[in-house]
Amino acid sequence: MSPGFTEPSPEAALRARALRLLARREHSRAELRRKLAPHVEEGIDLDALLDDFTKRGWLSEERFVEQTVRAKSRRFGPLKIAHHLREKGIGEAEIAQAVALARGGESESLESTWRSRFGRIPADAAEKARQVRFLQGRGYSLQSIMDLLRRVDSRR
């Protein structure tokens, strides 16, 4: 060590680690807690640190949800986005709002995904089933997929 350099306190080191994680991207509270937990030393209150970050506006689940919906709604449907948010520890009320937000652009997103992957009406039942399975895997509802296929088929 160089002269005059002192190790940061364990709490300062944990705070710096949390700030580095948040500087890269938004995190949910549960996700940040999971990432920081292995680095918590005796006597450090992780919940107090997270509460402080929330109070200062550095940690915001609302911002995390909005950013996630914006980023994922181009490629995925509302059901997949909701599943992702549940995995990150977001509450059901916030997920319901996120799904409502994602459903606003679902039709355009679904059609864009379908066109980029398939681009043509299924020739037979097997091809239709394959397209439906793919789109359901991307998080779109069966009703939305069937509506899209009927709409595109009627344009022919």
How would you describe this protein?
By secondary structure, the protein is mostly helical. The protein has two domains: 1-59, Arc Repressor Mutant, subunit A (Orthogonal Bundle); 61-156, no CATH class. 69% of the residues lie in helices and 0% in strands. The protein has nine helices and no strands. Helix 4 (61-72) runs parallel beside helix 6 and helix 5 runs antiparallel to helix 6 (92-104). The chain is elongated, with a radius of gyration of 22 Å. The model has no long low-confidence stretch (mean pLDDT 91).
The gross shape turns out to be elongated
Mean pLDDT: 91
Structural class: mainly alpha
* Count of β-strands: 0
Helix content: 55-70%
Span of the ends, CA to CA: 73 Å
Topology order in helix (H) and strand (E) letters:
HHHHHHHHH
Poorly predicted ranges (pLDDT <50, ≥5 residues)? Answer: none
Task: Please outline the major beta sheet.
Answer: none
The tally of domains stands at 2
Q: Estimate the strand proportion.
A: under 5%
Radius of gyration: 22 Å
